[in-house]
Design goal:
Layout lengths: L3 E4 L4 E4 L11 H4 L5 H11 L21 E5 L3 E8 L5 E10 L4 E2 L6 E6 L11 H5 L4
Length: 136
Amino acid sequence: MCKSVVNDGNYRFVLFLAVETVGKKKVEDVMPIATGHEKEELEAELEGRRLLDIDFPEGPFGTKEAPAIVKSYYDKRIVGCPGGEGEDEHDVVWFWLEKGKSFECPVCTQYFELEVVGPGGPPDGHGDEDDEHHHH
């Protein structure tokens, strides 16, 4: 799975990019099967623009008082923290960042919070409450 390391000179963390998760395939290869928001994102990518500018966060190192804000179209997303700059770097710590919950990296103590900039909901389109109805 491909990933993007974000580095703006202040802090870095890694975000999965929806378009890159198609692996070796080109965007054009997935267009026939893409639907909904994924199709909108892919069409925008083909035009050289991002539908939502949520993959390149900027700002200072996240603290408890002022956490690093990660934008998401959904109520949660996968984020990776490789620490700070230079000697403050560490192996990437992957985690689910969820709406309404802050996350503290156990290695470098950077804090993160999610800002939902879309309609929200789970990334897979199925909420936990839906699962309960299928196990009778």
